[in-house]
Every structure is written in C-alpha cells, then in structure tokens.
Amino acid sequence: MKIASGKRKVENGKLWIFLTACVFFSASTTHLFSQSQNTDEIPYTAEEPPKFFSFSSEDFPIIETPKPQPPKSERKAQTEEELYEIRAYNEKIRAENEIWQQYQKDIERYNKIKSYPKKLLKNAEQPLSLFYRYEVKKDSENYLDTFNGLYARLQTKQGSLASINRISSPDILKPGTILILPIQQGMYIPKKAESALEILLQKELAGKIGDGTKCYEIDGSEFYFIPDENFSPTIMAFFHDQGMQLPLSKKIVTSEFGYRTSPITGQWKFHAGIDLAAPEGTEVFACKSGSVRTVSFSEIYGNYIVILHNGKTTSLYAHLSKTLVKPGQTVKTGDVIGQVGSTGASTGPHLHFEVRENGTPTDPGKIIKN
Question: pLDDT band at 160, cuts 50/70/90?
C-alpha cells in the first residue's frame, strides 16, 4: 500500500509539472502573439505617456458650401404659407453661411497665432472650434466634391484632409461620406496603422513625435498631430496611385474565378482567384502599391505573398519559385516581388492570383486594368 501511495505522489508531481509548463507555454505564446498584433502601432519613446484629448465628431459644427440668397423678385410671396416657406429657407441659408464664415475665420485665427509664443497666446483670439464636419455631395457635373476639389475649396492640405479621415486613396471618397475638417493644418498620424499608406506615414514621420506633440482621440482613433507637415512627393505619388494592374507582363488565364473542377482532386470546388500561365522564373509584379503583410509557405499555396493595399483590400500571389520581399516592406505598383513557380498544390508553373475585399474573394478580372 505504501508503494502504491508513493507512485501516486510521483505521478501527481509529474502531472503538476506538466500542467505548470502548459500554463507557462500558453502565457508565453499569448504574449508573443499579442506583440505581433501591434507591429503597426507607433512606439512612444518619450519619458511620460502622451495625453490624448478626446473628441466626438458629432460635436463638430457641420458646414455647407455657401449659397447665394435668391433675388428679391423670386422671393415675393402670394400667401402667408409661401411667405413662411421663403423666410424659413432664407434663415436656413443665413445659418449655413454663418457657419461657413466661422470656419474661414477659425482658419485665419489659427494661421495668425500658430507661431505666437506662449505668453501672447493667452490674450490672442482662439479658434471657436478645432474641427468641423462636411458631408460629401453628389456632384457629377462640376467635380467639386472629388478629393482634389474638396481639399482646395475647403482650404486644407491634402495630407491633413486624408490623414485625419484615414483616406487611403482619393477614389474611396463617395457621396454621403462625413469628413472631418481640421483647423490646424499638418499631418494626423494614427497611433495604430490600418492601411499601407498609414504604415508609410508612420515610418516617415515617427521620428518627429516627441514630448511636445499634440495628441487627439477622435471617435476612438488616436492621432499624433505634426503641424505644418504635408504629403512628401513619395507619399503623394503613393496616395494617387490608382487602379490595379496585372501581376504578370502577359495575360494568359488558364483558370477563371469561380467554381471549377479542381485539377488536383478532381472535385467541384470554388476557385478564389485566377491562374495565369507563365514559364518558371517569370517576374511577378505587385498589382498595386501597398505593404507586404505575409511571406510564407503552405501545402496548398506553396511559396506565397500577401500585400495589404488600403486597409481593406489584399492581393495574394501563390506557387512562387522565389519570394523577393519581406513582411512590412512597402511596395509600389509594378515592383518585382517574386518569380513564377510550381510550389505547393500545383500541376505546372503558373501564378495563382487572388484579390480580397474585407476578406471576401473578389474576381480580379473585374478590377484589374486591361
């Protein structure tokens, strides 16, 4: 009985050691995983953590493009009801124009005092609001509510308007979008990047973030404000780089997007991309500017690369013989990222190419430039 009891103690001791090791391993891997998820967050190296001033965009005054008052000849009322409607309309126009004028005055006030020493700031006339709102209108004739039309008309820098609204490319600006208009012109660098453009901005401007940096939290997004900065020529070109292009120099599609009989298993299966035939070693190009998210190997894809383009769109390049980029690397449209191969589940040299929007496969043939 004593021997059996001793064995149980030894076994219980081994079990305790095993469970402790499992807990330690789980905690360690969880810590490593959590660290890997924050690779796009700017580390703050100053002695004290920054204080973020929190705002809700719903509290920002909303402005409209100023409208002229109708001529008196068009404002004559025949009935009391018509008179009431005219007065209400005129009051609406007057109120809208007053907010527009306030917005312009606040820009002037900020530009006047931004270089004042602290002693003079106390008595200087401050902007009534640091931020305003504007709803993008449908304007197909004059193109005033395109990104280029808006930043000029609303007296903002391209970088200011794009960075604070987290706009990764001009073409995503659609009617109904509510824009935040900053009175303080400069770059609003998000603490945690969500797109290739923001990753590029972080790398370029993180060195300018320090103890004196203003920090804002707007609707849950945290920004470091760097005054008087704008897009550099490199980022400007990256920002305006529109459309996807073919990842190979020649387009020979051997398998379309959609359901097909798998050449590997012979089963009826959904094909999430397109297959492009090419000799082994053929150069593979980035279809659009972005940030390399993944360079890895799997039994299905073989050697593959995933590129993030605008925070929502990713492109995948599979069965590569060689990969020529690294995770975190920024690439431009047409940069060579790898070479065609036949690695993974493949019957011959070709490129399997996918495009996903918010994780959902999309037919690349519909969005690539001819």
Answer: very high
